[in-house]
Amino acid sequence: MSLFALFYNFVLILVYIILIPYLLYKSRAKKYKQAIPAKFFLKNNPKFHFNGVWFHSCSMGEVRAIKPLIKEFENLANISVITNTGFDEAKSISKNVRFLPFEFFLPFWITKQKVLVVMEAELWYMLFLFAKKKGAKTLLINARISDKSYKSYLRFRFFYKKIFANIDKVFAQSEIDKIRLEELGAINVEVIGNIKLAQLPQKKQNLEKPNCRVITAASTHESEEELILNAYKKKFGKLIIVPRHPERFSKVDELIKNFIKDKELTYHKYSVSEDFSSDIILVDKMGILNDIYSITDITILGGAFAKIGGHNPIEPAFFENVIISGKNIFNQKSLFECIKNYYLIENSELKEYLEKANTLLKPELTKEGSFEPIIKEIRKWL
Description:
Layout: H1 3-26, H2 35-41, E1 53-56, H3 60-65, H4 67-72, E2 77-81, H5 84-91, E3 97-99, H6 106-109, E4 115-119, H7 125-133, E5 137-143, H8 147-155, H9 157-164, E6 169-172, H10 175-183, E7 189-191, E8 214-220, H11 224-231, E9 238-243, H12 249-260, E10 267-269, E11 280-282, H13 289-293, E12 298-301, H14 314-318, E13 322-326, H15 333-336, E14 339-340, E15 343-345, H16 350-355, E16 364-365, H17 372-380
Parallel strand pairs: 1-2, 1-4, 2-3, 4-5, 5-6, 6-7, 8-9, 8-12, 9-11, 10-11, 12-13, 13-15
Antiparallel strand pairs: 14-16
Helix pairs in contact: 7-9, 11-12
């Protein structure tokens, strides 16, 4: 290892030692009971068993986005992820799934692979360094640098140059991203669009649409459900609430129950009755959001009212849902740029926009993406 890599690894070890008590504490929570022991203590998280095509992405949405790539190289695919939802999604595609360990484990955890394919912003120094040292060709796909994070990246340009020195090929979303990535030291950059647009959203089941307007509050976060409930009136139609994280289902259930106490509104959880007969329905089930979009008229897209950075608007746009979002879409700006007609509003304006829903325009997808250049590049090294 270079002096920089040795120093970097030394810092990681110090950080790890300091974090151990916190990690042990957090690992008792149901949400982290599997992920923390796997990532930070390698429990039930062995090395990959064979030399293949290693796909790494962060969470459920990113895993779904690269599913066609994984299927293309199904017999060679190894998958690593960061989050619980990403792990569950990857497990539905392949049995060769791991949590990516904390970086200082990677020098001895990584095995020889033919190709490493990393999705978006997963720029882990040790990941690329040791994958390449073990003989893998390294690809970064769907790469972008958002307006908000650009200055932050530039401040640490010296570090990112060291990361990009171990990346053989970068597939960027746009020409602006290409310029910014090259400023950070990326070489061999090709613009192919956003691969999240390369596959059309699919339904798993055909749900029966209620005979009225359907409003879906999709991928909501803390404080957003309360905002949406306070803006809601029965005359607007049925309200379906789909929280982003399953561990919040019970909290949102209590919130809705308290909200309807003094109101003539009906409510039920989808897990109790899989229909949309009530005025308000809490969808406490994962993996059916596309099915719900298919019966929805208006989507209130979460993540931007709570300043999380927004969520993917492509799926509701594909199903022609009117899209209402908060203005804090900094993590999804490139995807919103692929759509015509959507509404970014202040939190205080939500009721007003629901009042005038009949005048709002449906979105249209205006851009495309492609997997073909990535597939071609992977095949070169098999």
